[in-house]
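In the design runs reported in the main text, the only information available to the sequence generator was the tokenized backbone. The following block is the verbatim input for one such run; it is reproduced so that readers can re-run the procedure and compare outputs position by position.
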């Protein structure tokens, strides 16, 4: 099987966790603290994967200069795009409470939330394809970490969409589309940068990592700490440790 197809398969698998989380958020009445605990665990997993898999891999390919520039560029690009979407009604897209505006309260917010969800998911998917470059096999640490973190993302966001009176067709259509796009983004991450220098691949990997960390700080961590303040830190550390162990076991 060609490597680009493997990239698409693994990206789709990781993205499918968003759809699974969305189904849980719509069909099961989780309490706000439960959702926050799950979000905290997913945040810890993703932070660990960023540190020990993505950034470490980028540094080994391109050193400090390419990795640092890419990392900062990713955070800047994400933050600007996120700021623009926030003005259209997507600021609270990861929140599970009543913070998300309905379409009646803010017309166009549904599309802004959809674009925001896509903005959150593309960097994660691209790093799966990028991880195939050079080694010939996907980083299972990245796949597992993204899969685990995507479940609370889909769960919390969809619970909030439900409270904003968005239809099941909208919710499941959105996450199904993003799951498909996740696979495509992984293929692009592999095919678009194949054959380029280690410095370029390092910069692109770090760019995706920077965007992911900015997303965590802006959307996932606030949800976790607002509703699970007493235990969120401990649960985040537990998630971090799980991903750290996976990294060292070479999963």
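Verbatim output:
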């Amino acid at each position: 099987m060609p490597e680009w197809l493997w990239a698409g398969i693994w990206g789709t698998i990781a993205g499918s966790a968003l759809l699974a989380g969305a189904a849980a958020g719509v069909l099961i009445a989780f309490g706000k603290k439960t959702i926050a605990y799950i979000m905290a665990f997913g945040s810890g997993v993703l932070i660990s994967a960023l540190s020990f898999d993505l950034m470490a891999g980028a540094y080994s390919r391109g050193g400090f200069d390419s990795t640092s520039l890419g990392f900062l560029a990713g955070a800047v690009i994400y933050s600007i795009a996120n700021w623009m979407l926030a003005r259209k009604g997507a600021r609270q897209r990861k929140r599970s409470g009543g913070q998300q505006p309905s379409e009646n309260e803010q017309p166009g917010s549904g599309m802004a939330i959809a674009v925001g969800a896509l903005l959150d998911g593309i960097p994660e998917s691209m790093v799966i394809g990028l991880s195939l470059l050079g080694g010939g096999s996907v980083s299972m640490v990245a796949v597992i970490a993204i899969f685990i973190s995507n479940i609370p993302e889909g769960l919390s966001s969809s619970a909030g969409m439900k409270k904003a009176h968005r239809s099941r067709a909208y919710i499941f259509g959105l996450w199904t589309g993003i799951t498909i796009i996740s696979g495509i983004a992984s293929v692009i991450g592999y095919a678009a940068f194949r054959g380029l220098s280690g410095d370029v691949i390092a910069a692109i990997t770090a760019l995706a990592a920077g965007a992911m960390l900015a997303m965590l700080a802006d959307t996932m961590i606030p949800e976790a700490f607002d509703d699970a303040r007493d235990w969120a830190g401990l649960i985040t550390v537990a998630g971090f440790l799980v991903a750290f162990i996976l990294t060292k076991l070479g999963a």
